[in-house]
Amino acid sequence: MTHNLVIQSLAPLSDAHHKPLLALSRGTRVVQTDDHALRIENANPAQRLDIDAYCGTHALDFGFVEAGRTLGEFGLVVMDMDSTLITIECIDEIADFCGLKTQVAEITEASMRGEIRDFNESLTRRVALLAGLDAQALERVYDERLQLSPGAETMLAGVKAAGLKTLLVSGGFTFFTERLKARLGLDYAHANTLEIVDGKLTGKVLGEIVNADVKARMLRDTCASLGLEPSRAIAMGDGSNDLKMMAEAGLSVAFHAKPVVRDAATVAFDHVGLDGLLRLF
């Protein structure tokens, strides 16, 4: 099996990178695919550590991709929401409206780094701190603070044009995933439901918590409903809660991710936007 090495940059790529990257990757030819990306053909994945070091020094992203593979060979893109499809952690911003952002964000960060092993416990602790908050805070977070990650709409347009279905699966909340599903024309969305009574958050989540196991199951189940093997899914995420679904997929993308996720993914985007997915093929 032969591989191509795809190099990407936020800034226009200088051709000064061609010779050193060709030598480091032990490839046979450099093709500049656009101003921000190049492809090195017949690259050696065993050179990953050297490529990683070079790219880290020059603020470049890289990925080894099977030669000849196309985006259209996949059938499903599965995305995390918080800090992946969107730039914020919704629960942290909700907590800001009751003066608890620091406390909640500390738990969020520890959970995403994998330091809190039980995601259910982590989420339950954070949601409990929101008890009594006016539910209008959710609307304010969506309207005032939620922004799509760079390249999100371009990426979604590209995968849809290639015939792929889209699944947003989140350890966050349906209030946000359902709005994003409608706004972006996503095919499927699955997340946690916050209990609201008399217009206020109760500090509880209704039903099954969407943890790492549930995310992986949603990927498998959606693939099954579409008649796809999980190897034809692409999974994109940033935190430890995404690792199991990423392991199920044929291609995994760590997006501006925690180190534990970056190390486990097929490809890591530390600099470019979500549309970097399109340049891999």
Automatic annotation (TrEMBL):
UniProt keywords (A-Z) are: Amino-acid biosynthesis, Hydrolase, Magnesium, Metal-binding, Serine biosynthesis
Q: What is this protein called?
A: Phosphoserine phosphatase
Gene3D superfamilies on file: HAD superfamily/HAD-like
The terms under GO molecular function for this entry are: L-phosphoserine phosphatase activity; magnesium ion binding
Biological process according to GO: L-serine biosynthetic process
Species annotation: Burkholderia territorii
Q: In which pathway does it act?
A: Amino-acid biosynthesis; L-serine biosynthesis; L-serine from 3-phospho-D-glycerate: step 3/3
PANTHER family for the chain: PHOSPHOSERINE PHOSPHATASE (PTHR43344)
Listed InterPro entries = DUF4072, HAD-like_SerB, HAD-like_sf, HAD_sf, PSP
- Annotated DUF4072 domain ranges read 5-51
Q: Which family does it belong to?
A: Belongs to the HAD-like hydrolase superfamily. SerB family.
Please give the catalytic activity noted in the UniProt record. Answer: O-phospho-L-serine + H2O = L-serine + phosphate; O-phospho-D-serine + H2O = D-serine + phosphate
Question: GO terms for CC?
Answer: cytoplasm
**EC number, as in UniProt:** 3.1.3.3
